[in-house]
């Protein structure tokens, strides 16, 4: 990773049950996921001196990370919450590395946990202020506007969108943690109801309860732990910002700038990547993201998903745990957890062979923010 | 003032106008679409602000827009997200590229969604939704 003398690693990952989990609170999902990550790292709570979180999407409480620290009985040297929506949990890794490099903390836990499925989810479909009268509610509607334009400009088809849903579900069928494990067919896709055309229900990720967390530390400390460290090779960010419909080109996300920054930071390129965990809140997003990262030409994301090219065993396995679409509809923390498991060879039936370098994407809002991270065996 | 009963449920979605946005909403009550125009760089903008998003100038004036534009993208909403739109389902929401430059979101009602396409010409449709306020929608341009 350029910009730092040392190297930094993910040494522990944890999660809570995904799906409808009314018995665990928002706070509980954060705390239990962090505890599991601490245990996975072979550390104790006393070792953790940094707590960073993304705020729970459904209620957006203030000073959330200090509250999580309290429930873990930790008085952290470094804490805070970053608002990049779904890109926050890579942005927080960048913040954690800076804090580690400055010697401000030794082991930093990063978490996301929320219960929008069993609690409130009002924030998911709240009207858009002055634009409410236009009848645009909910993230699916905004992303459908993007998908329609992508279909118009590049000839992307419903069949190609279906490929994304089917492929990610196929991977989820090998993941006992996934919310949806039943494989789906093209017919299932075509029979699922329209939500906001061009999107059907199976184009959209579910709303899920759950928590996920990871522990970041320096290479020196990582080497003292039992499990092999997973190295953070590069991080990039790129944020289109602006209200989505006012952007010059609705089919472009922050992935081009973020991906280039991450590749440059890592000194790697798309050819070096063995697998990807791509933020897939809606089927069109992985197409756009893979295009912008340079895995295929702009507009050819749909074709890239054909012929099971993105399946485990294919040319570039994408979303090996099922992604947001099938594993859990959470904002991206779980994608980092899966990348770490793949690099460690803990994927079980869904393990990618020779998974040495992996790429994770996260994005927030309506492609408003974007972050990219490349991890490796070191 | 007569209010079309099919538009009345939408009144609750009208925001309270601010000092900055009031000319836009007053314009709709006069059956005109008003946009801000920068006196320095001539850019039209929406939503309104006291400065120009393009050049930063504060020499902002209000201009009457043609109301014409073309569909940049659109969706057909089937999910009953909001009670006010329940009886409209399925309805079209379009991103409209106005002839003056800015893009706006707007609902297109009373139309076969299959007749909508990207690039088609649309024009502003201004309808009264309450005693106090008219609101902006779009409809296919009359040839
Ligand atoms: Zn100007």
Structure report:
- The complex is a heterodimer of chains A (378) and B (143).
- Chain A is of the alpha/beta class and 378 residues long.
- Chain A is globular.
- In chain A, helix 8 (255-266) crosses helix 9.
- In chain A, the strands form 2 sheets. A 9-stranded mixed sheet of chain A has the order 3-2-4-7-1-8-11-10-9, sandwiched between helices. Chain A has a two-stranded antiparallel sheet with strand order 5-6.
- Chain A has 2 domains: 8-120 and 208-231, Thiolase/Chalcone synthase (Peroxisomal Thiolase, Chain A, domain 1, 3-Layer(aba) Sandwich), CATH 3.40.47.10; 134-207 and 234-376, Peroxisomal Thiolase, Chain A, domain 1, CATH 3.40.47.
- Chain A is built from 12 helices and 11 strands.
- Chain B has one domain.
- In chain B, a hairpin with a 5-residue loop joins strand 7 and strand 8 (134-140).
- In chain B, strands 6-5-4-7-8 form a 5-stranded antiparallel sheet. A 3-stranded antiparallel sheet of chain B has the order 2-1-3.
- The relative contact order of chain B is 0.22.
- The longest helix of chain B is centred in the first third of the chain and has 8 residues, at 22-29.
- The model of chain B has no long low-confidence stretch (mean pLDDT 95).
- Chain B is 6% helix and 36% strand.
- Chain B has 1 helix and 8 strands.
- Chain B has one helix spanning 22-29, and strands at residues 34-38, 44-45, 60-64, 68-77, 91-98, 103-108, 121-128, 134-140.
- Chain B has 143 residues and is mainly beta.
- Classes of the chains: A alpha/beta (378), B mainly beta (143).
- Chain A binds chain B through residues 125, 127-138, 140-141, 144-146, 148-149, 152, 193-199, 245-246, 250, and chain B through 10, 13-15, 21, 47, 72-79, 81-82, 85, 88, 90-91, 93, 95, 102-107, 113, 118, 129, 135-136.
- Strand 5 of chain A pairs antiparallel with strand 4 of chain B, so a sheet runs across the interface.
- The complex binds zinc ion.
